[in-house]
């Protein structure tokens, strides 16, 4: 007998990560993400890795549902393994192809109205031409490239910081400075943002460097964080 | 029971069932919405022996700009381009389908399809997704087998018509009146397609600048494609970026 209940799909992410940012600098690409995963409003895991290496010359950083990301990473690994086993002269994917491939997978799933709830940043270096690549894929399968790309709420906070400052002759130090600024702003304004940030660089010689997470510096003892506006006018209050 | 009564009862039942359904329906639709709109504007004018197409390069999501440099116009053959406003992910998929089907046509018939052939094919492709439409608004532009400029305008589900000028997307409401006034010869006994490329180019450029002035989803960059007997030419210039 047919199951009378309608097919249901997950309609929101469960355990999910926040914003990720990617910036092109003169000799490569810099990616960063925090290490927190949230379950609703709660920090569920505090040292998860959200940037993953998918090939020798390609890295993806993902925000959104972590289970969906693990599924996609499994698919990517299977794909790579079969390509290697086949040994048929097949050309392995370049970062640009991984970006398109992910976009196709996302578009396919959204057509089934059962999407993978992720936005990815795909970064890498073309193994033949040595060109830098930095692209993004969203939940609907929209994908595009840019000198800097953002996922999640960083789209609202960090465009203004990066637009115009990401130039062709930006150095790694400059890029890192901009990145730190972006994540500091996010840490102050976005409740889902953690302060442990992991940086990953890919340079034009295809060296992928995963750095250990660093803790952002932040200052909270401003006057306005300790005293309410018009505090003295309130006659009933608790004193500490 | 008279025939009349039977019908009345049947109708009553039908309405009752309908009412039951509406009562059981949830107050608010939850879950994943497969559609977003990335907006943007495209416009085109067909001349006597040429066709000019413009599009902006902004891709937005709500009040956020996702990208300032994303083309809306894809070259299909040496004589035809398609310009698409609406949802980017759908547009990318649609353009891919069109290119594949044109490649298949070329393999079968050893020639590229004319614009009227592609026009019908695009209409059918869109209607093939009648019940889960591509959220795209297309202008198919080029020159036909007689060398005249030709434009086909579409809605999202594939009804289409040949026009001599058109605009699609979020700025279309601002551009259509300009084109109506400057290009479409309303109240003229024998309308004539424009033959001066410079006039057409200026009208299109001014229209896009006008749209970028008032429409928040239009701006950043202006792409202009010119299609004539020599092939397709492509220029790019800045639009306002705020």
TrEMBL record, chain A:
Source domain of life: Eukaryota
Name of the protein described by the UniProt record: Proteasome subunit beta
Which terms are listed as keywords in the entry?
Answer: Cytoplasm, Nucleus, Proteasome
Q: Which SUPFAM superfamilies does this entry report, sorted A to Z?
A: N-terminal nucleophile aminohydrolases (Ntn hydrolases) (SSF56235)
- List the InterPro entries hit by this protein, alphabetically: Ntn_hydrolases_N, Proteasome_beta4, Proteasome_bsu_CS, Proteasome_sua/b, Proteasome_suB-type
Its BP terms in the Gene Ontology are: proteolysis involved in protein catabolic process
Report the source organism: Euplotes crassus
Cross-referenced PROSITE patterns: PROTEASOME_BETA_1
> Which PANTHER family does this entry report, sorted A to Z?
METALLOPROTEASE TLDD, PROTEASOME SUBUNIT BETA
Q: Name one GO cellular component term.
A: proteasome core complex, beta-subunit complex
* Family assignment from sequence similarity: Belongs to the peptidase T1B family.
Where it sits in the cell: the answer is:
Cytoplasm; Nucleus
| Task of the protein | Non-catalytic component of the proteasome.
From TrEMBL, chain B:
Compartmental location:
Nucleus
Keywords annotated in UniProt: Cytoplasm, Nucleus, Proteasome
Which Gene3D superfamilies does the UniProt entry name for this protein?
Glutamine Phosphoribosylpyrophosphate, subunit 1, domain 1
Q: Which InterPro entries match?
A: Ntn_hydrolases_N, Proteasome_sua/b, Proteasome_suB-type
State any GO BP term from the record: proteolysis involved in protein catabolic process
Q: Name one GO cellular component term.
A: proteasome core complex
Top-level taxon in the UniProt lineage: Eukaryota
Principal location class = nucleus
Name used for this protein in its record: Uncharacterized protein
